[in-house]
Design brief:
Layout (H helix, E strand, L loop, with lengths): L1 H10 L9 E10 L2 E10 L2 E6 L6 E6 H8 L5 H7 L3 E4 L1 H8 L10 H10 L6 H17 L9
Helix pairs in contact: 5-6
């Protein structure tokens, strides 16, 4: 999440957030410590700062989960519905900010397959290799991606 927010702040302008206005604070928990990132959005103009500040919404979560959201591996609203991501205040701001997160199609199929394999107990080495090969073939077949600049 750190890299995503840093890049978002560096760009300063994000067309996908043209309708968003407000501030959202991320309370990121890592190794017994809490870090705070404040994202202010004003019709496409975005600033990101460290520290607490007045926010319209506060997102409270484990740093690993937020990293997975920032890479597109986990959908933020799905995490809210599962109860692993906590939002206080204006949840609409998280919905709007989610537009700037990469989607699941931005994550290679092989990565998603690898993640799924890790969750299958008793998976044999042969079946795991076969699944990886199929995922690599799918990656090559679906290698059409969005342009890097958004």
């Amino acid at each position: 999440m750190e890299e995503f927010l840093t890049e978002l702040g560096r760009r300063g302008s994000e067309p996908l957030l043209a309708t968003a206005t407000g501030a959202i604070r991320f309370d990121v928990h890592r190794g017994g410590r809490t870090e705070y990132r404040l994202v202010k959005m004003d019709r496409g103009t975005v600033t990101v700062t460290n520290g607490k500040g007045k926010a319209d919404a506060v997102v409270d979560a484990d740093g690993d989960l937020l990293d997975r959201i920032a890479t597109g591996e986990v959908n933020a609203m799905a995490a809210v519905l599962r109860g692993v991501l906590h939002v206080e205040g204006d949840t609409e701001l998280l919905i709007q900010l989610q537009r700037a997160f990469p989607g699941p199609s931005d994550v290679p199929v092989s990565f998603r397959a690898e993640q799924a394999l890790r969750q299958l107990p008793g998976q044999t080495a042969h079946r795991a290799r076969s699944a990886r090969k199929r995922a690599a073939i799918l990656d090559r077949a679906t290698s059409v991606r969005r342009p890097a600049s958004r």
